[in-house]
Amino acid sequence: MTTTAEAPLLLTKRRIWIIFAALIAGMLLSSLDQTIVSTAMPTIVGQLGGVEHQVWLTTAYLLATTIVMPVYGKFGDVLGRRRLFLVAIALFTIASVGCAFAGDFTQLILWRAVQGLGGGGLMILSQAIIADIVPASERGKYLGPLGAVFGLSAVGGPLLGGFFVDHLTWQWAFYINIPVGIAAFAIAWFTLKLPNKKATAPIDILGVIFLSAFTTCLIFFTDFGGDADHGWDAVETWLFGIGMVVSALVFVLVEARAKDPIIPLSLFRNPIFVNATAIGLTLGLGMFAAIGFVPTFLQMSSGTSAAASGLLMLPMMVGLMGTSIGSGIAISRTGKYKIFPIVGTLVTGAAMVAMTTLAADTPIWLICIYLFVFGAGLGLIMQVVVLVTQNSVDAAMIGTATSTNNYFREVGASLGVAVFGTIFTTRLTDNLTDVFAGAGASAADAANSTATLDPQTLSQLPDSVRDGVVTAYADALAPVFWYLLPFIGIAFLLSLFLKQIKLSDVAGLVARGEAIGGEEAEALEAAQFAGARHPNARHADNQGDDEPSTPPAAHDADEREGVPSRS
User: Fold this and answer.
1) In the prediction, which pLDDT does 147 show?
2) How many CB atoms lie under 10 A from the CB of residue 489?
3) How far is 57 from 3, CA to CA, in rounded Å?
4) Tens of pLDDT along 261-287?
5) Residue 242's CB: how many other CB atoms inside 10 A?
6) Other CB atoms closer than 10 Å to residue 3's CB: what's the count?
7) pTM score
8) SS3 sequence, 304-321?
9) pLDDT of 37-53, one tens digit each?
10) Any residues with CB less than 8 A from the CB of 3 and at least 6 apart, and which?
């Protein structure tokens, strides 16, 4: 399918950690942005007059991310991942500048969508590169540094986001990405050394077009259907519905005939891949919808500052990091993974049941416990599902499988945010309008007050009105968790049927013959180093250059049991 122009890479432990440093820089850029923006969102939508449309700010980013995921995954397999990773960082950083200078809510939504085009690449390519350089059987030990990145984002993001909106302006939530993005680009440019490849089959342009059309129509169909301004009986809603069905059918026909499809239909004949992807889809429906609006609830209904409300999400990240790292280490030691999604869905479901009791007078410490348990459940599922997906396919399809799995999870997330976010926003808008109308405001003034409400304005309202607003937020969000529970239940049932197979002990690059790993790589690097120090010993380098392009370890990759696609 591809040709490799470069000699096999020596995948030593030192090189693995150097490459890993570049991935961490990119992940820090993306994860820090998410926590900062989520903390600043109530202020942003209030000052730009977009409270009733705030769901679009999240949906735009998720939609763009979802559309480009399969593109990055497939193109990474075909062309190599280094240049695409640099493009993703550049896109994300440039879009951050656009967000900072957005003059109105519509411009901000558009630039957040562009930001999503970069964010999708950072997510997919990082996961695929890790699979390229680290065998599935050893990947758990690398979750520690990744957990540290997300932990830093979980603490630093809310603090920065809160500081920006409390003492500076919300634009600083995006200004901060500029130096971080430049630093991440520089680190990746100098340290992310990976093979570049050339495509030997035509790029599946039609597949990209119709997959993008399907994703867009699906999200707009759900958004318009749940929007009070359109509804399920609106013509435009069902036009998007028809477009969704037609583009899906055409996409399947295109992929069946494409020489190198962006999402090969053969993946869906792999039962382990299908099971893991279905878990990701249902998890996305419940997880992102729950996470997306909790900071807003904490900030508005609990009366805390932006910084404090962001830090209240820290228990969730602590729970997620703890169980993610712990499960990763346990999987590396035992090679067993099936139990973790089962336990994780049960724990996540229990946390959601607890969150249905959220009210304006719920103690902060109790909310933190709920969030910790919720995060602990997610940590047992998220990394495991990706690991199982990557381990179930041929090494040449690691990027495609990773992106497809994430694509369906993000489809679930986009649906969850669109549908349940619309439910939350519609209930909230009605509740807030009633509160302001009950306080003596005219219908027009009540609508305007609802659209421009932010935490600073809330603190200046009379006690009776402020209490009404707090109750409005609590009454709008808490019932939404009941709607999310069935999807967590489906994820639990799917986890019960997840097949346990042997984890690969060969990294993706090694299995594809693009790198030499293990003790052989260490010995060759030592010989090269010795040759550099002692010119008379340069024959050691020449022997290393004569190594076959496909190392012996690659031939063992197909001998693992239980993976039909590698036969």
Assistant:
1) 59
2) 15
3) 41
4) 888 888 888 888 899 889 988 888 877
5) 11
6) 8
7) 0.74
8) CCHHHHHHCCHHHHHHHH
9) 766 766 776 666 656 56
10) 197, 198, 200
